[in-house]
Amino acid sequence: SFGEQLSNETDGILSTVETLASTAICGIIHAILGGQPLLIVGVAEPTIIMYTYLYKFAKKQPDLGEQLYLAWAGWVCIWTAIMLFLLAMFNASNVISRFTRVAGELFGMLITVLFLQQAIKGIVSEFSMPKDDEISDPSSPIYQFQWIYVNGLLGVIFSIGLLYTALKTRRARSWLYGIGWLRSFIADYGVPLMVIVWTAFSFTLPSKVPSGVPRRLFSPLPWESISLRHWTVAKV
């Protein structure tokens, strides 16, 4: 989901491939060298907001533009890493003792609001036509009004169904049925299990439904040209 949002906000310059690859690389490095257990490794909503503003700023600059966006964003990350090293060396984390619990709750509320905003925008977008550059065949039946409407309804059903079942599985330990280890397993891994289950449901539609309904995440293969060109940003 973060990869798709990044792809939409950066016109495909950053996509699911870069999101998964960066999360895997950072996760491995942090597991080997990191010393802080409570740390979000990977892409989150504030990260997407930062890269979105960087992209919009780069597009407006004649000496940057879309071609130099990745190189410029890379230097932003390098300087950010240097500042984080300095903060860690001088033990700046002690400043957190000056903050009250309200600051943490406000930050948590911000993340919640951002997630809700993107969820609502995503559901609403399922009822509309995709971007012109994402339409391969304008005459395809999936772009007819009735199938766009069906696509939106399926998006609502799958979204609400996933949310409801995921919340239910979180309370599996208090269920009155099922053996103990199974309830603990469902409570710990219920959310990813429900993602798999509802994804499987989306492939069980009748054969009369066009193959493009519901819409699915576009993820280019790592060895395709659209993905390989991003790894040569160091040459710029």
UniProtKB/TrEMBL annotation:
<dbReference type="GO" id="GO:0050801">
    <property type="term" value="P:monoatomic ion homeostasis"/>
</dbReference>
<dbReference type="InterPro" id="IPR003020">
    <property type="entry name" value="HCO3_transpt_euk"/>
</dbReference>
<feature type="transmembrane region" description="Helical">
    <location>
        <begin position="69"/>
        <end position="90"/>
    </location>
</feature>
<keyword id="KW-0472">Membrane</keyword>
<protein>
    <recommendedName>
        <fullName>Bicarbonate transporter-like transmembrane domain-containing protein</fullName>
    </recommendedName>
</protein>
<feature type="transmembrane region" description="Helical">
    <location>
        <begin position="179"/>
        <end position="201"/>
    </location>
</feature>
<dbReference type="GO" id="GO:0005452">
    <property type="term" value="F:solute:inorganic anion antiporter activity"/>
</dbReference>
<dbReference type="InterPro" id="IPR011531">
    <property type="entry name" value="HCO3_transpt-like_TM_dom"/>
</dbReference>
<feature type="transmembrane region" description="Helical">
    <location>
        <begin position="147"/>
        <end position="167"/>
    </location>
</feature>
<feature type="transmembrane region" description="Helical">
    <location>
        <begin position="38"/>
        <end position="57"/>
    </location>
</feature>
<dbReference type="GO" id="GO:0006820">
    <property type="term" value="P:monoatomic anion transport"/>
</dbReference>
<comment type="similarity">
    <text>Belongs to the anion exchanger (TC 2.A.31.3) family.</text>
</comment>
<feature type="transmembrane region" description="Helical">
    <location>
        <begin position="12"/>
        <end position="33"/>
    </location>
</feature>
<dbReference type="Pfam" id="PF00955">
    <property type="entry name" value="HCO3_cotransp"/>
</dbReference>
<dbReference type="GO" id="GO:0005886">
    <property type="term" value="C:plasma membrane"/>
</dbReference>
<feature type="domain" description="Bicarbonate transporter-like transmembrane">
    <location>
        <begin position="2"/>
        <end position="128"/>
    </location>
</feature>
<keyword id="KW-0812">Transmembrane</keyword>
<keyword id="KW-1133">Transmembrane helix</keyword>
